[in-house]
Amino acid sequence: DAIDANYMFELFVGELPIDRPFGVKSSMDVSADGTDQERYFLVNYLDFIIGYNGGDVVSANVTRELNLEHLVDITEWKEGMVIQYSYSVHWAELPHISARDALEIQLKSTMPHGHQNMDIHWLAIINSFVLMLLILSLFLLIIIRVVRSDLSRYLQIPDEELNAVEEETGWKLLHADVFRPPKHRLFFCSAVGAGAQLASMMMMVVVVG
């Protein structure tokens, strides 16, 4: 299952990450009727190429070339099967890579799709920004349609006549009630501070439920 799902294992060499697949899957003609059969192979050999600059490890890689002697057929896995692992190390001097930039260069080499993920991230930001502008424009359009008639009427009335207008309809009925203090303010503040609204809500839920 791990090979089918392309699972990777990760190693760290001097704090530099290396990721490689567990194994490979191949179709081979091994049946008598000539049909291909899927075979699973486990990689049991790693060839490390370690780059150094002075006394610091600045690069770590594993060769991707796989030979048949470096693969173990695990298609017919048996319990208790023992697999021997081996590795080799080659050292290479890399004076152009500093220890400070080693991790950044290593991450770029191990994540070839990083730039693509960044493009997708910017695309999501642009989509969110456009959606916000669309919602804001729709909200402003609704507000303008609601108050346009009232504003046009007020602009045609002189100031002295505007003060004498007593009839108010629509949204203007609420403008004076926004900051109107309630009756029995002390009792109201005490009840809200003590959580009376929460207690009443719980009682209603119990009764209704």
TrEMBL record:
<feature type="transmembrane region" description="Helical">
    <location>
        <begin position="186"/>
        <end position="208"/>
    </location>
</feature>
<dbReference type="GO" id="GO:0016020">
    <property type="term" value="C:membrane"/>
</dbReference>
<dbReference type="Pfam" id="PF02990">
    <property type="entry name" value="EMP70"/>
</dbReference>
<keyword id="KW-0732">Signal</keyword>
<keyword id="KW-0472">Membrane</keyword>
<comment type="similarity">
    <text>Belongs to the nonaspanin (TM9SF) (TC 9.A.2) family.</text>
</comment>
<dbReference type="GO" id="GO:0072657">
    <property type="term" value="P:protein localization to membrane"/>
</dbReference>
<feature type="transmembrane region" description="Helical">
    <location>
        <begin position="120"/>
        <end position="144"/>
    </location>
</feature>
<dbReference type="InterPro" id="IPR004240">
    <property type="entry name" value="EMP70"/>
</dbReference>
<protein>
    <recommendedName>
        <fullName>Transmembrane 9 superfamily member</fullName>
    </recommendedName>
</protein>
<keyword id="KW-1133">Transmembrane helix</keyword>
<keyword id="KW-0812">Transmembrane</keyword>
